[in-house]
Every structure is written in C-alpha cells, then in structure tokens.
C-alpha cells in the first residue's frame, strides 16, 4: 500500500503540473487518460508477474512499458519545474505589474512558457521512449575490453572471456532474444563464457524452453554461471540444477582450474551478495572460492554478480572480477544513483591491484527501455601489462 500511495502521488504531481499547462482540450484530456491508464497498468503488471501464460506476459509488457514511460515523464516534469523556477528567479517569467495591459502581457508570457515547456516534456518522453525501446529490444552489441594483468604469463596473453549478464529472461525476454545472444557469443570464439547472474525472472517450469538456447554456447573451456539476486527470487536451487542440465558449470563459492597453453587459470565464482538471506548454504564467500587454488596460477578470475563483492575479492587475492547487476542505470538518469548502492556503476575500475569490470547488462529488467546505458555482450581480453592493447 505505501508503494501504491507513492505511485498515486507521483501521477497526481505530473497531472497537476502538465495537464493545466497544455492548450485546448484534446491534449490535456489525452494526457489525463494516459495517466489514469498508467496508474492502473503499472501495479497490475507487478501482480501479473506472479502468474504465467500469454495474458500475464502481455499485461507485463503493457505495465512495464507504462512504468518506463512514466519514469521519463516524471523526471522531465521535475526538471521542467526546475527550469521554470530558475526562469522566474531570473525574471524571464514576468511578474504581474500595475495596469491592465502589463498584467495581460505578463500572464500571456507565462502561459506561453508553461505550454512550450509542457510540450517539450511530452516530446522528450515520446522520443526517449522510442529510442529506449529500440535500445532494449535490439541484440546487445559486442563491447571489447582489454585488461592488462600484472605478471600475466605469455601463454595467457590474449585469453578471452565472453561475458553476458542480467538478461532477465521472463515476461518480455523470450527464447528468440536469448538465441540472438548465443549466436553473437559463438561468433566471438571465446576461450570461456561467463554468465554473471540475473539470467532469469521466473520459475523453471515457465522459462525452461526460453533458456534452452544456452546449451548451444561454444567456447574452448566451457560456460560458467554464478547466481544473481533475481535467481533467488525465482527458486535458485531449482535453477542451479536446470542450468547444470544445459551444460553450464555453476560456481557457488568455488573454482575450477583451466589449463591453457601451458598456463593455468583459476576460474572462480561466488553466489550473489544477498544469497545467504535466501539459502544459508549459498552465503557469498570469496575466500572459499579461492581455497585450494594453485599458487602458480597465471590468472585468478572471479565471477561475482554484484560489484560490491570486490572488497572480498581483493582480500582473497583475485586479479580480476567480472560483475553486472547495475545495468549502468538502464534508463537515464538512474545511473547517477547506482553509486549510492554499489562501488562501481559500469566499465573498468580498480580496487588496489584488483581489476573490476562491471557490465551494463545484456538484457534489461522491468521496463523494456534502455536510454543512456546501452546493453552489451562483453568480450574481455587479458593481456600482459607490458604489451600494448590492439
């Protein structure tokens, strides 16, 4: 109920600020109707996600799209009010002066600015929604990243890992979407594939067919998976068994050793940062993931869904951590707020001697929009620190 109340208040705020500012009757009426529909569709889509089937999926599509549109509309309305406040403070919106003529001009000038800025909000929301849907529904482009690792053996120079993360297979992400990702990864011919969590949003019974293309991933050393927080909302233990059945190696606070060109790679993974709250035996533990690893390994790589696992990864002695979770914010301007919950938002960062790469995600969650935070299939190439990137 508190969430529904907040949603209602936000819709009322947008309505009171924009509807009276628009001229005529058609535009204000259509906006009011859309706000009413949005107020119904958004909560309905969250309730619909608990069900399954085509009707529930369509309801999720409609409600999640409405949520994305309202996000853009609400933020731009707030920015509009900021601009109007500044304009008023600078005298650009004339104050009413003595005399009928001056008063009429002042009111007319203010009304023009109010209407023009309201139309600007609607225009930005419309164009942003169109660009956001295209950005979310396209197949994620490949982003190539070189990471220079101190002391990397020559045999591992050029070792590649294709990372996919945060696909969120569920009501709006289906089998065809997953198949396009698999096809793109296979064209990279990586040495290994890393799936760093939040692969699914739903139960195995509902999504088994949609994730089936993952069995077709091809690489020299295989595909490795670690859980994200959304796996624990969807029955993590059942998903672990299902993904192992597809040929993925699930790493729950453990590692495997890969022999590559005469050198050894420790490929390790931790359960999601929050996993212990759902399955006590899955409590995230980077030390356990490193335990027993060979001291002469040329590369120690940790897969961890959330970037905030980095402190533990650094203490455990890993060289590199690959993460996701943040989506880079997914829809502008929410990327600016990720830093209040995670140490890194997107891209390559360093914590001591540990490199941390945070992917913006290969799919999307909730609203089928991406704006200002493009999706990616990441091709990470490890190079010797004294060699130049290509």
UniProtKB/TrEMBL annotation:
InterPro entries: Calcineurin-like_PHP, Metallo-depent_PP-like, Metallophosphoesterase_sf
Listed transmembrane segments: 31-47, 59-79, 116-136
Keyword tags: Hydrolase, Membrane, Metal-binding, Transmembrane, Transmembrane helix
Calcineurin-like phosphoesterase domain segment(s): 160-328
Entries under Pfam families matching the protein: Metallophos (PF00149)
Cross-referenced PANTHER family: PHOSPHODIESTERASE YAEI (PTHR31302:SF31), TRANSMEMBRANE PROTEIN WITH METALLOPHOSPHOESTERASE DOMAIN-RELATED (PTHR31302)
UniProt-recorded name of the protein: Metallophosphoesterase
Lineage, opening ranks: Bacteria, Pseudomonadati, Pseudomonadota, Betaproteobacteria, Burkholderiales
């Amino acid at each position: 109920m508190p969430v529904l109340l907040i949603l209602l208040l936000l819709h009322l705020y947008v309505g009171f600020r924009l509807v009276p500012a628009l001229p005529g009757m058609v535009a204000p009426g259509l906006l009011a109707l859309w706000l009413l529909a949005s107020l119904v569709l958004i909560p309905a889509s969250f309730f619909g996600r608990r069900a399954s089937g085509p009707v529930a999926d369509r309801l999720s599509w409609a409600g999640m799209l409405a949520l994305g549109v309202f996000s853009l509309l609400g933020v731009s309305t707030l920015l509009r009010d900021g601009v109007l406040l500044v304009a008023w403070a600078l005298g650009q919106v004339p104050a009413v002066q003595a005399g009928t003529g001056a008063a009429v001009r002042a009111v007319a000038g203010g009304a023009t600015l109010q209407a023009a800025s309201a139309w600007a909000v609607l225009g930005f929301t419309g164009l942003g929604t169109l660009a956001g849907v295209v950005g979310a529904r396209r197949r994620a482009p490949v982003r190539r990243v070189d990471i220079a690792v101190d002391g990397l053996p020559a045999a591992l120079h050029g070792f590649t890992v294709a990372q996919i993360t945060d696909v969120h297979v569920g009501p709006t992400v289906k089998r065809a979407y997953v198949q396009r990702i698999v096809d793109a990864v296979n064209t990279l011919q990586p040495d290994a594939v890393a799936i760093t969590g939040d692969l699914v949003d739903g139960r195995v019974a509902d999504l088994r067919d949609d994730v089936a293309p993952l069995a077709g991933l091809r690489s020299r050393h295989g595909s490795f998976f670690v859980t994200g927080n959304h796996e624990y909302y969807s029955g993590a233990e059942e998903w672990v068994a299902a993904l192992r059945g597809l040929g993925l190696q699930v790493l729950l606070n453990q590692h495997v050793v890969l022999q590559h060109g005469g050198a050894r790679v420790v490929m390790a993974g931790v359960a999601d940062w929050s996993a212990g709250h759902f399955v006590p035996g899955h409590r995230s533990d980077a030390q356990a993931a490193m335990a027993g690893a060979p001291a002469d390994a040329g590369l120690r790589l940790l897969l961890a869904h959330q970037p905030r696992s980095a402190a533990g990864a650094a203490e455990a002695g890993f060289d590199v951590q690959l993460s996701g979770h943040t989506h880079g914010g997914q829809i502008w301007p929410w990327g600016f707020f990720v830093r209040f919950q995670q140490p890194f938002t997107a891209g390559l960062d360093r914590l001591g001697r540990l490199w941390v790469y945070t992917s913006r995600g290969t799919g999307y969650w909730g609203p089928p929009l991406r704006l200002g935070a493009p999706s990616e299939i990441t091709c990470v190439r490890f190079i010797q620190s004294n060699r130049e990137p290509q």
